[in-house]
Amino acid sequence: MNVRKKVLAVVLAVTAGPAAGCASLPTNSAPHVLRSFTPEESEASAPRPVDGQEPDLLLRGFYAASARPDGNYEAARSYLTDAAASAWNPEEEKLVVDSIGMTTLPGSTVGKRSFAVHGKVVGTLRQGGAYTPERGTYEATIELDMVDGQWRISSLPAGVVMERTELRNQYQPYNLYFFDDEDRELVTDRRWVHSARETLASDLIALVMEGPSERLRSALTGVLPSSAAFTGVRDGAYTFTGFGGVPQDERTRFAAQVVWTLATAGVTGPYRLTADGEPLIDGTDTLDTDDFVDVSPLVESVGETMLYALSDGKVVRVGDRSAQPVEGELGKSTDAASADITNTGEWAAVFGRPDDGVDDVFRVGRFGGREAEVMRAGTFTRPSFESDAGAVWTVADGKRILRTVQSAATGDLTTSEVKAELPDGVDGKISVLRLSRTGTRVVMVIDGCLYTGIVRRATSGERSIVNVYEYAQELGGSVVAADWRPDGSFIVGTSSSTPVMRVEQDGSSMTAQSSGNISAPVVAVAASPNTLYVTDANALLQVPTSGADNPIWREVPGLEGVRALPIAAR
């Protein structure tokens, strides 16, 4: 990585009272919650108890206030009795529920009420504001006492519970960036932060200093020496100490992390970074994204991508108004079933007719160059390339995840099996497997459900899939297709009444895409920076990624009337 400047550098068990509440999820460490999200939010605007407020309304006010961590949850504590406020531990866990329901329990008296509170758990916020999808039920018993003529909560479980709408209202998602374990590419680590705009830069840098989230840690670098510390902003410079033993190449990578984290959060540059009283990188007073363009995490978020399509067993290259067969076997074939193609012309494809009783053939090649058979099996999922096209993945017979690597020295192909640590009870067939652009994440469709995992790289070069979670649980078993969008989210095709969905990278939410003229099921999806593609029951359709609120999906020029499968080269 080069730095361009005037001088170039070298490179719920604990309760606050006698009534216990429980949730069917384990306790997690507390998120890194900071100050109020927007400057106009203040103590005056935070929810507070109202004189004479009925107990059920006061309880709902408490849950709304619990989403604001300002002043050690001062607003939420105002709803509690003095004893409960002192005993309540909001840091034990932070659950996100779809909605909160409550029912009055029998046995209420003039000065005491008890409520059964419940909700469907959809996720948790963990250390540093990392969101993790969860599936479970929150159930708790909350007691209220009359104190000086006002209802106050006297007993409640430890931890914080918030509705999903409050997460979106009070927290904001930001991207932190850490290098993959080969120090080649920046990988997104999405966090939910509750921070004032004027302190946002410092708060994000503090999170970068803590390193990657627990889920991503096995796939990323970013661990600084214990001596390294962020000491705040002085005279417009972000200052650090304890970097005396950190070599220049590691300083440069750390600077790239900080610069891209701040830039994508809307903190304008250039940025001054100093360590132990000197510029973090020798010879550089200020830094900006132009200095780290070679590791830009936005590399796929701008421009356009070459579109290919698979139709009638052959692959065609789609131009402005026409589609022409590609060179070699892919363009001549009559039985290509799926393919993945890179911007540099590498391809991997599966050949074979479905349900013909004959093994399918998995082949790799390059346009205008070599082609080779890898192996045969009853079925293969659509292949998926790693970021540098040095390896390609597929799933044989719905079970065996395979990774094929070509030797740079001899050109020989070697295929090994990738182990996946799936959640308990998940043992279905994998129908879709797609690697993210950086190769750090993987999305899978297993028995119609959507899962994502992290690709762990062993020192021996082997890969495994770990920390697998189910996303978009509301879709049930209706998921048919899934792929990555350039911004790190997913485009998902289903057989349901909402045939196209956007699912966020961390699984925190999903959004139905325009579907007015789509006929489910959507059997294939693809995305470029400017366009979404789907294959529905009738044709290959496209829509711009931005513009009208409810755009119409239109047939792809050059493939009108053709039910083709889209392939966005990357």
* Residue fraction in strands: 35-45%
Radius of gyration: 26 Å
Which residues form runs of ≥5 with pLDDT under 50? 4-44
Domain unit count: 3
Count of extended strands: 37
Mean pLDDT: 89
Strand neighbour order, sheet with most strands: 21-22-23-24-28-27-26-25
CATH-assigned fold name of the largest domain: Neuraminidase
How would a crystallographer describe the biggest sheet? Answer: 8 strands, mixed
What's the SSE blueprint?
Layout: E1 22-23, H1 55-65, H2 70-77, H3 82-87, E2 94-97, E3 101-104, E4 112-125, E5 131-147, E6 150-155, E7 160-163, H4 164-170, E8 172-179, E9 186-193, H5 200-210, E10 229-234, E11 237-241, H6 248-264, E12 272-275, E13 278-279, E14 307-311, E15 314-318, E16 323-325, H7 329-332, E17 336-341, E18 346-351, E19 360-366, E20 371-377, E21 384-385, E22 391-396, E23 400-406, E24 413-420, E25 430-435, E26 441-446, E27 449-457, E28 463-471, E29 479-484, E30 490-494, E31 500-503, E32 510-512, E33 524-527, E34 531-535, E35 540-544, E36 554-555, E37 565-568
Parallel strand pairs: 2-7, 11-12, 24-28
Antiparallel strand pairs: 1-5, 2-4, 3-4, 4-5, 5-6, 8-9, 10-11, 12-13, 14-15, 14-37, 15-16, 17-18, 18-19, 19-20, 21-22, 22-23, 23-24, 25-26, 26-27, 27-28, 29-30, 30-31, 31-32, 33-34, 34-35, 35-36
Helix pairs in contact: 1-2, 5-6
Structure description:
The chain has 570 residues and is mainly beta. The protein folds into three domains: 22-170, Roll (Nuclear Transport Factor 2, Chain: A), CATH 3.10.450; 174-295, no CATH class; 307-568, Neuraminidase (6 Propeller). It has seven helices and 37 strands. The strands form eight sheets. An eight-stranded mixed sheet has the order 21-22-23-24-28-27-26-25, with no helix packed on it. Strands 1, 2, 3, 4, 5, 6 and 7 form a seven-stranded mixed sheet that branches. It has a four-stranded mixed sheet with strand order 10-11-12-13, with helices on one face. The longest helix is centred in the middle third of the chain and has 17 residues, at 248-264. It is globular and about 85 Å long. The chain starts with 21 loop residues before the first strand and ends with a strand. Belongs to the LpqB lipoprotein family. It is a lipid-anchor. It is found in: Cell membrane.
